[in-house]
Amino acid sequence: MLTTETPIQYLKGVGEKRAEQLNKLGIRTVGDLLSHFPRQYEDWSTVTPIASAPRDLPCCIRATAMAAPLERRVRKGLSLYTFSAVDSSGVVRVTLFNNKYAAAKIEAGRQYLFFGTVSGSLNAPELSSPLIEPAETGTRIRPIYPLTAGITSRYLEKLVGTALLMLDKTLDTDPLPHALRQQYRLCTYRYALENIHFPSDHDALAIARRRLIFEELFVLQLGLLGLKNPTKTKTSICIENDYTADFAEHLPFTMTGAQQRAVADAIRDMRQPTPMNRLLHGDVGSGKTAVAACLACTVMRNGYQCVMMAPTEILAQQHYQSLCRMFRHDPTIRVGLLTGSMTKKQKDIIRSDVENGICHLLVGTHALLSDTVQFSRLGLVITDEQHRFGVRQRSALTAKGEHPHLLVMSATPIPRTLALIVYGDLDISVLDELPAGRTPIATYAIGTDKRARAYGYVRKFVDEGRQAYVVCPLVEEGETDLVAAEAYAKELADGPFKGYSIGLLHGKMKPREKEQIMTDFAENRISVLVSTTVVEVGMDVPNAVLMVIENAERFGLAQLHQLRGRVGRGQHASTCILISDAQNEEAVRRLKVMCETTDGFRIADEDLKLRGPGDFFGDRQHGLPEMKIADFLSDMSLLREAQNAAQEVYKSDPALALPEHKSLQTAVHNLFERTGGQELN
Q: Residue 255 has what DSSP assignment?
C-alpha cells in the first residue's frame, strides 16, 4: 500500500534511475514529492481571444491549427517550424524553434491551447515557442516546479497527480487538529495538497497556500518550544550571589543602561530552577563581550566554569585577550584558550587544566566540541556570532555540563519580530545603545577614478598618528586568498603607501603570525593594515579611524556593516570609504543604504528586502530546518498566528502526547531531522 513514507522509486512512473535524479531535489519519499511545492504557476484557466491578447503578459489562447507546421532551415543547427492558428477573433502566426517533436504533434483542423506572450502588431500577432496542449486537456492553473537535470516540470506534475490518486486514507489523516483548523480558518490537509499542486482557481490556491504556510510555521514553533522546554529540564547549578557590582567597579567604563538590563535579565534567569537560554542581540560595538564577561564573573565566583565559543581563531584570540584584561584584577580567575591550530602539547595542557577545574573560563573555536574536552563543573556556555552556529552545535557544547546556562550572542541585526522566530527557543536581550565615546562613522561611496584621492585622505590621517584598514578585493575564481592579498598589499606598499608601515592579514596565515600582526596593529607599529574579510569580526583598535573597502559592490550589506564596525571604536571621528564602479541597481542601492545610516537594524531591514530571508540567514548559518513554502518576511502576519497557536498547544500538551497531537509530534520530529537539527523531547 502506498503511503507518504514509501520510497519514491516505487511510485508508478519512477524507478531507480529517475529516483536518483529526484533525490537531487530532496525527493526521497512520496511525502517529499507532495511537499515539493510549485515555485510559480502558469494561468491556463482563462482563455483570451487572439484579437485582445496582451503584448506584455503571458496568456492562454484556444485556437485551431490551420495547417501542419512548415519547416524552414535557417542555418545548420537551426530550424523554424511555422503555422497559423485561428479563433473567432483572428489569426496568430506560431513559430517553434528547433522543436521537431512539438511540431510533429500539430494536426491541421485540430484545436489547441497555446500559452505564451503574444508579440507583433495588432494586425499580425505572433507567438514564439509557446507551450502547446490539445484543447481537450482543459483550461486550468498549471504548476511550475523547481527542477534538476533530467527532470521536467510536466513530469513532476504527472507524478504528483499519480501520488494524489493513489494516496487515500493517508491524506485524510490531518496533522492539524479539527478544533485548531476551525479556530484559524484553515482547510483540510487533502484540500491543501490538491490545490497547491492543481488549484481549481486562484481562491483555492490562496486557501491552500495559507493552510500549508501556517502548518509549516506552526510546526517550527512547536519544535523550538520543545528545544526550550522549561517544563522538563532542571539544573543543579546554583547562583546564590550576584557579583555584577564588583565586576563593573573594575571596568574602565560605565556600562550602558541596555547592558545593565541584559545582565539583570540573565542573572534573574540563572537563579531559576531551569537553565537560562538567552540571546544577547546587539549591533556592532554595543558591548556584548562586557555583558558576557560580567555574567561569567558571577558564575565563576559561585564556583562554576564557563566556556565561550567563537567561529574563527582570530575572534577567539581577541576574546581571550579581552577577557584576560577584564579579569586581570582578580588573580583567582584563570582564562584559557583552545583552538585547532595549537600544538598537541598545548592542547593537552589546557584540556587537563579544564578537566581538573584549574581553568575557570575557556575560550575557543569548534575545537571545544571535541570529546576530549571535559569540564569539571560547567555552569555557563557562551557562543559568539551565533548566526554562524546551528542548534546542534550549541547543544553539543551544553551537553558537556549538567544542564548549564546558555548565552548566545549575535551582532547580525535583525528585526525583533524576526528574531523571535529565528531564535524562537531563546529569550532575547537587545543592546540598543552604544557605549559612551563611540563616534558616528561617516561613509562615502566613490568610483575607482577617485581611488587616488581616497588614498591621499588615508595618508593625511596616518601622518597625524591615526591608523587605517584597507580591505582587499574579493578573490576571483581560481585565485587564493593568499595570492590575492599578498599581491594587493605589495601593490599598495610600492605605490600609494610607499614609505608607510604596512601590515598584511589573511586567513591562510599561521595563528602566531596573525596574533603578531594584530598586536603590532593594536600597538600602532603598523599604520595601514591590508586585510581580507578576516577583520570582519574580532578587531578592536580605537586608534583605527579609516576603512577603505575595494570592490564594495561584491559584499552583502550585513558584511559591509560588520567590516565598517572595525572603525569608530574610539574617541576620534571615523570614516569608511566604499570603492565601486557598480551600475547594477541592487548593488547601488546597497551602497546608498550604507552611506545613509549606521543603524544596524535599519540595514538588516534593507538586507532582508534585497536578499530575502533564505539568503539573509542561510541554512548553514542559522541551523533551522529548511522552509518548504513559508517565507519569514512576507508571511509575517500568518507567522504571528502560528506562534500563538503553538504556544496554546504547547501550554496544554508540551510533550504532544494527546491522541489528537500524535501526528503533530511526528511532524515536528520530521521537520527538525530533515536538516540534522537537535533531537527533540
A: P
Scored b (16 or more CB within 10 A) or e, 176-208 reads bbeebbeebebbebbbbbbbbbbbeeeebbebb
Question: Looking at the structure, do residues 291 and 191 belong to the same domain, yes or no?
Answer: no
617 domain residue, yes or no: no
Between residues 390 and 435, the one the model is more confident about: 435
Q: Given a cut of 90, is residue 537 above it in pLDDT?
A: no
Range of the domain at 499: 441-597
* 240-262 pLDDT per residue, tens: 999 999 999 999 889 999 999 99
Compute the distance between CA of residue 282 and CA of residue 604 in angstroms, rounded to an integer.
12
Model confidence at 483: pLDDT above 60: no
Instruction: Indicate the pLDDT class of residue 151, thresholds 50, 70 and 90.
Output: very high
Grid coordinates of 404: 548549564
Identify the CA nearest to 278 among candidates 389, 383, 434, 433.
383
Task: Give the cell for residue 82.
Answer: 511555422
Structure confidence at residue 256 (pLDDT): 92
- Quick one: cell of 313? 581563531
651 in a structural domain: no
User: Residue 295, Cα to own-chain centre: how many angstroms?
Assistant: 29
DSSP for 441-476, please give it.
Answer: EEEEEE-GGGHHHHHHHHHHHHHTT-EEEEEPPPPP
Question: CATH number for the domain including 329?
Answer: 3.40.50.300
552, 581, 592, 602 from 584: Cα distances, Å? 12, 9, 12, 22
